[in-house]
Specification:
single chain
Length: about 350
């Protein structure tokens, strides 16, 4: 199969929706790359805050930047549009409120080409920002557990040790590989990263390379999707997308049941995230309704078996284990109080760490 590819090395896909204050930081980090052979595809997803005009202005100033305007359809559809428009050898995803470090493209493209890899995985660091994009404090680094190149067979043999994550912007992808296996985000409004990554590990790649360094700065801000309540997260369609992970892992595990703990861990993390999202709705949604949402999610056919099978080893911290135990015992009201308290502590901690004006 022959794919259309232009000389430029990488297409950087950036979905844009109402991020006028943050986009300049993101674009500046692209323009600071030591590897200058790239194109940026800004997919304006129906912005209403001036982001669309800002995208157009960047395209006029820098020929490497291209803009595509579309009706609002969510991050998944915006990224899929970027994949349709991409023409370069490799593809990277960057969110418009995040930044990348100057050597991301140079070092990871060099690795990809050296190993003839279809995917390169790298790390990121969290940073907490205010509504203007000003960094309030640095957070933890999250680095890949693996190091070096793995074939598809080696990847599945080492799967539990490689710290599978559902984050798409910590990877560089060969575009021909994505096209050959028709990998898309499927138009999902939530859980689009998990859906994409589940398809990816199910699609045989020649090699995947792990680069245990941080190259991406992930911004956490008060109004981001990660700190807000989304009803779509609880939809039946979203639940079925998450069940796909279990199907894929069971199909590839060396012996039946040997990766069951990894499946449980992934699904329980989704349950804990659901409880956390409901804590963001405190004061805006009656407690009875929050409990109803939480009960429905925890007792679904997808999540209940994983939650009941969860042990301490399937959680990463004490706070996760306490939350999982409360949900195992169907103490939904108490569980919400627990997650509300955790959220209150996070807010207070961030206020205390905020630099004085």
């Amino acid at each position: 199969m022959v794919f259309e590819t232009e000389a430029c090395a990488v297409s950087i896909i950036i979905p844009v929706y109402n991020v006028q204050a943050f986009l300049p930081h993101c674009i500046a980090s692209l323009q600071a790359q030591t590897w200058t052979d790239w194109e940026a595809l800004l997919i304006d997803d129906g912005s209403t805050d001036g982001s669309a005009a800002l995208c157009d202005a960047y395209a006029q100033q820098d020929a490497r930047i291209k803009v595509f305007h579309k009706e609002n359809g969510g991050v998944g559809r915006a990224r899929d549009e970027g994949l349709r428009q991409a023409r370069r050898e490799y593809v990277a995803f960057v969110d418009p409120d995040d930044t990348i470090r100057p050597n991301l493209l140079e070092e990871n493209l060099t690795l990809a080409r050296k190993e003839q890899a279809d995917v390169v995985v790298y790390g990121y660091q969290k940073q907490f920002v205010d509504q203007t994009g000003r960094v309030l404090r640095a957070g933890a680094c999250e680095l890949p557990k693996g190091s070096g190149a793995y074939t598809y067979e080696e990847f599945w043999a080492e799967f539990p040790k490689l710290k599978y994550t559902t984050i798409v912007w910590t990877r560089l992808y060969r575009r021909a590989y994505l096209q050959e296996h028709a990998l898309t985000f499927g138009g999902a409004r939530v859980g689009e990263d998990a859906y994409f990554m589940t398809q990816l590990v199910d699609a045989p790649f020649q090699k995947i390379v792990y680069n245990p360094k941080a190259y991406y700065d992930y911004s956490i801000r008060p109004a981001s999707a990660m700190t807000s309540f989304q009803k779509a997260y609880f939809d039946e369609d979203a639940l079925q997308r998450r069940s796909l992970f279990a199907e894929v892992v069971r199909r590839h595990e060396p012996t039946p049941g040997c990766y069951e703990g990894r499946i449980v861990r992934e699904l329980v993390c989704s349950v804990l995230e659901a409880a956390k999202k409901l804590s963001f709705a405190r004061g805006r949604m009656p407690d009875a309704e929050r409990i109803r949402w939480l009960r429905g999610y925890c007792e679904s056919s997808v999540m209940q078996p994983a939650l009941q099978a969860c042990t301490r080893s399937e959680t990463d911290s004490s706070w996760q284990w306490v939350g999982a135990q409360l949900l195992q015992r169907k103490q939904y009201r108490l569980a919400l109080r627990y997650f509300d308290a955790l959220q209150g502590i996070r807010v207070l901690r961030d206020r205390m760490r905020r630099p004085a004006r």
